[in-house]
Design brief:
By secondary structure, the protein is α/β, with parallel strands linked by helices. Helices cover about 50% and strands about 15% of the residues. A hairpin with a 4-residue loop joins β1 and β2.
């Protein structure tokens, strides 16, 4: 008799088959990230790092110091055990500037191989391009210049039309900046280095900021202005705002910066130098804005090997569909609900249909949560969870939709900092319409298929087939009236062929 696996064990096995690991041997940190979830919207399952600072002596001795090497190898040996324990077969290991430039870098990588890892030494251009792929994956359709600040180098890459066009690696990493700033003429020396990337100055659009130190800078900016969101992904700064921020950081001490949530002691020590570098970058390249990315070289490694079909998928919908599946909410059912409510949403602007579908899917997942937890989850899922392919205004509309689906029309005041009143009103209307679809008949396919919701100039009309006419009773009638009132319409229920 062949033994059968329980659904839980089978799911666990399938999840392990989807795991991918990236070991990033950087000049500043040695990090391992294990990803699960769909390829187009990977989810972090495990993430840890050690600040070995392999590149700290590149500017002086030109070597990786023994203490740093031992620290890194100890961490890598630990990572190898964890990868084996979790049965992660798909592992990419890459090494960047420190191993590339140190005179004992080859010897160090031999020791890494002895641990059972297979490191690939990236050239400067490969490092730059891989970071660019991460930004391209995080911001579909992005056009601008990616600026990835690591410990040993600064990568600058132009991106447009879903690919990269120019790339350069410059020796301006956070571990090198202090020595550059010790003497006068820091800005002049940095501008001279930027002479290699004249294309960046001519490239229109934003700077896409990649790397942990830039994210720490974003955390400082968000904390300073009491920004409602916690994730720096897609956070934006205008150039003049960034320059004022750089001026403040130049006067700030690491001990004070460490108290800001999201800024580690290590990053706090780098921020003053990074701010000095950023000031020159803004003056030299004149970007129209700064956009911060949580995706970088590690996610770029995953995105670069996707085929065109996978890359074309919407990361927001892919990610939310995978998340909602844990709550037994399916995108096919959400599509039916979004279609059923489409007439209510007409005239609300282009590009919102994907967001409305995302809202429908999250609203359906939210109903699988205990009632007393739903309001908190509505704000956490929309505002705090890391979604890709969404900006702050989109998050606010999602939040308004989820709260609307709970019958709430009073919005938290912080949402008004993220989106216009009109956008929030639209999002709330989506939520009220999704609530009506659920009230109709538990969002069942039969109730959806035997009814229609139509908006006229004066009325919101719910039409039911004869077979489902009995659904036209309280509390359905109440929710129909609430939605109609929100839209400034009268409401009516009729029976007939659908």
């Amino acid at each position: 008799m062949t033994p059968t696996r329980s659904p839980a064990k089978q799911r666990s096995r399938l999840d392990r088959e989807r795991l991918s690991g990236v070991v990033d041997i950087g000049s500043n940190t040695v990090r391992m990230v294990i990803y699960g979830g769909p390829p187009r919207a990977p989810v972090t399952v495990w993430n840890e790092k050690v600040a070995a600072r392999l590149g700290r002596d590149l500017a002086t001795t030109g070597s990786i110091p023994k203490e740093a090497s031992d620290d890194a190898l100890g961490a890598l040996a630990r990572y190898r055990v964890i990868l084996d324990e979790l049965e992660v077969a798909d592992v990419q290991t890459v090494a960047t500037a420190a191993a590339r430039e140190a005179d004992n870098g080859g010897e160090f990588l031999d020791k890494v191989r002895a641990l059972g890892l297979d490191p690939r030494l990236l050239s400067g251009e490969e490092e730059a391009v891989t970071s660019a792929w991460g930004a391209i994956g995080a911001f579909p359709g992005a056009e601008g210049v990616v600026a990835d600040l690591g410990g040993g180098s600064l990568e600058l890459v132009s991106i447009a039309q879903g690919t990269w066009h120019h790339g350069e690696s410059l020796p301006l990493g956070t571990l090198r900046l202090p020595s550059l700033r010790m003497n006068k003429g820091f800005a002049r020396r940095v501008k001279k280095a930027f002479g290699k990337v004249g294309w960046a100055q001519a490239h229109p659009g934003p700077l896409y900021m990649v790397g942990g130190t830039w994210r720490a800078l974003a955390q400082y900016a968000m904390h300073s202005c009491k920004y409602p969101l916690t994730d720096p992904q897609a956070f934006e700064l205008a150039p003049d705002e960034a320059l004022r921020l750089c001026a403040r950081l130049a006067r700030s001490k690491p001990e004070k910066l460490m108290r800001v949530p999201g800024i580690s002691p290590m990053r706090a020590g780098y921020l003053s130098d990074a701010a000095a570098l950023l000031r020159v970058m803004i003056e030299q390249f004149e970007p129209d804005r700064l956009v911060f990315s949580s995706w970088g070289i590690r996610e770029g490694l995953l995105y670069a090997r996707l085929d065109d079909l996978q890359r074309a998928k919407d990361p927001l919908l892919v990610g939310i569909a995978d998340f909602a599946r844990m709550y037994e909410a399916q995108i096919t059912d959400a599509t039916l609900v979004a279609g059923w409510t489409a007439d209510v949403a007409t005239g609300e602007g282009n590009g919102t249909e994907r967001l409305r579908l995302a809202a429908a899917l999250l609203c359906m997942a939210l109903q699988r949560v205990e009632p007393n937890l739903r309001a908190n989850h509505a704000t956490e899922w929309s505002l705090d969870k890391r979604w890709i392919g969404i900006d702050a205004a989109d998050r606010a509309m999602l939040c308004a939709s989820l709260l609307g689906s709970l019958g709430r029309t009073e919005m938290p005041k912080e949402l008004r900092r993220l989106a216009s009143d009109a956008a929030l009103r639209t999002g709330t209307g989506w939520g009220l319409a999704i609530r009506l679809a659920r009230r109709l008949g538990a969002s069942s396919r039969g109730s959806i298929g035997n009814s229609s919701l139509r908006r006229t100039n004066k009325e919101l009309v719910l039409r039911l087939s004869e077979s489902h006419a009995a659904l036209a009773h309280y509390p359905l009638t109440k929710d129909l009236e609430v939605l109609a009132d929100w839209l400034g319409l009268d409401s009516r229920i009729e029976t007939g062929e659908v």
